[in-house]
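Notebook p. 47: complex prediction with adenosine-5'-diphosphate.
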Amino acid sequence: MNILVINCGSSSLKFQLIESNTEAVLGKGLCERIGIDGSRIVYTPAGKDKITIESPMPTHTEAIKLVLDCLTDAENGVIASLAEINAVGHRVVHGGEKFASSVLVNDEVIAAIEECADLAPLHNPANLIGIRVCMELMPGVPEVAVFDTAFHQTMPEKAFLYGLPYEAYTEDKIRRYGFHGTSHSYVSKRVASFLGKDLADLKTIVCHLGNGSSIAAVNGGKCVDTSMGLTPLAGLMMGTRCGDIDPSILEFYAGKHGWDIHEVTDVLNKKSGVLGVSGVSSDFRDVEEAADAGNVRCQYALEAFKYQVAKIIGSYVAAMNGVDAIVFTAGVGENSATTRQGVCDYLGYLGITIDAEANGKRGEEIVISTADSKVKVLVIPTNEELMIARDTLALATK
Ligand code: ADP
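Predicted complex, structure tokens below:
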């Protein structure tokens, strides 16, 4: 079966067409600047060079039409017609408490995703547009929604409740939800099979460190805690997001500058984190380069990031009363050897030692701890699209 995986962001759309037997990617790409001037699609058919097409995309509808045109194009397409797309899997950011696993889309599911839109106002509406446009263009093709929050629904109350009036939870749905669930789920499963262990016997801490970063404690395959919260602003300091701060800072900081609540929240989301502290960039490559050249604020930003990762790992060792494996994934986790080494330098008390040569490798699943390290440390490249395709296949063929 051919499965189209769609990930609609607020102004972008990533896609992959995956053949389910071989799990080969037939074609993939990205639509950028949807709804803004200068929109373009970058499409890569398997085995060929990238193709960039500039084309107006006022909405996600035009973007999905362009994706389907590229995939069925006479010269560079990878399928003859839309009839060769057998199912569509959509990433949906927020499933609230309604969805603890992926589901086949129907009217009820669409209504429930709409209900969660106030929890993810930038993402859920875009995800829904993607679902609706695919229904219209490919009527009768099964569509599956895969939620970022679903994997974290196994967290117990003690992990997801905030110290707020209980009604904040029961009436206003304010609780820790967690994000990057598809990645945490994929990576924790891969660790078990890579180590040849039973998932049920493993205590794993997954560090998804990218532009957005979150950490999850996974005990026996179930998430028991995670660092993001009601929204993806919580937890670690990230590329541009502040992560956990004293909540009183909002009023104090806004008061100092005469900002309203939206303006201060914008600063916390877009001008903080590694970008805010370093003053240089949200991209770890730029910040690492500047830190190496002696930029002190870049050094502070990177060290604060590693320190925060290490502190959350420590708290999750406590949460699970132990840990068997610590895993790094996503853009920074997979590529930055210095970040991994720096985090693990804080974890000597766990009996962790890193093999510098293994830590220097890239792009593969690998154990980077030494043979005598008491806890295994690994790098597992994440693959959210493949996870979405697998869930879609399972539900579409049920
Ligand atoms: P997103 O959260 O947008 O999905 P990714 O997981 O793709 O982000 O991670 C993107 C980030 O990965 C970039 O901003 C960059 O900071 C970081 N990154 C990518 N390659 C490297 C590298 N070689 N060294 C350090 N950081 C890297």
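Notes: The domain at 2-147 is CATH 3.30.420.40 (Nucleotidyltransferase; domain 5). The chain is about 40% helix and 20% strand.
Next step: compare against the earlier run before touching the bench.
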